[in-house]
Amino acid sequence: MHRILQRIICSVVVVFLHTGTAFALDGNEILRQVDANMQPQSYEMYRKLINVEPDGKKKEFVLYTVKTGQDKMVALFISPASEEGRATLRLGDNMWLYIPNVGKPLRITSLQSVIGGIFNNSDILRLDYSVEYDATGISEQEKTYQLDLKAKSPSVAYDHLKMTVDKESLLPLDIECYAVSGMLIKTLHYSKIQDFGDGMVRPSLLETDSPLHKGYRSVMLFAKVEKKEFADEVFTLNYMSRINELRK
Predict the structure, then answer these.
(1) With respect to CATH, is domain 27-245 assigned 2.50.20.10?
(2) Which of 132, 146, 203, 225 would be 45's cystine partner, CB 3.0–4.6 Å?
(3) Residues with Cβ < 8 Å from 114, sequence gap 6 or more?
(4) Shortest CA distance to 196 belongs to which of 227, 174, 170?
(5) Interior angle at CA 179, CA 52 and CA 117, nearest 5
(6) Matching Pfam families, A to Z (predicted)?
């Protein structure tokens, strides 16, 4: 009787573990957890972007960025002085650039880059990964998951991604970005985990390189990420000239 009871208990444990593994290997759920760990739904943050050329020359930009919901984001250039006051707005797949001495917002695309270098506009105004991609495959290593992600729309900057996710933290480590043709466009490398407070523990450094731009490198440093709510009018074309008011 005792042995029978032991076998029943073991069978239940095996079924439980099997079910638990199935849940753990749900690629879309892992992707949603990655998004939740990387940024709140509504927040403000400061970033420094650095473009490094093959001869070692550097150009730096400091951006103040706010986001709300799944598809509204705006970034204001604070420095250098030549870029101060410029702002970029993203509403879903649509993007605009505001230049103070032009006055009227201009349409821009996700694959363009308002700062040069390897980061394009979709990297700078990045939405949650789960908003733009579906997980179509998953594999498991000892310490990582490998997610195959397919763009939900042709308007997304990269047709598909290969994302390596740390199992313990559910944070991204590396992301390979591919065109429709299968050509590797760039690789993103996340590192230097930092506690930003209020439960936000995430990478503070993002570096990228590209086989299309050999010798060039771009770096993004995250100095502050804080939860904050914003009015809907902040994410409109008419408000782009007033973004700096949010910092006061």
Answers:
(1) yes
(2) 225
(3) 86, 88, 97, 108, 121, 124
(4) 227
(5) 15
(6) LolA_like
Q: Is the pLDDT of residue 22 over 90?
A: no
In this structure, which amino acid lies at residue 202? R
Domain ranges in the chain?
A: 27-245
Residues 58-83 pLDDT 10s: 999 999 999 999 899 999 999 999 99
pTM as predicted: 0.85
Are 173 and 149 in contact, with CB atoms under 8 Å apart?
Answer: no
Percent of the chain with pLDDT over 70: 90
Residue matched to tokens 């002085």: 81
Location of structure tokens 């400091």: 62
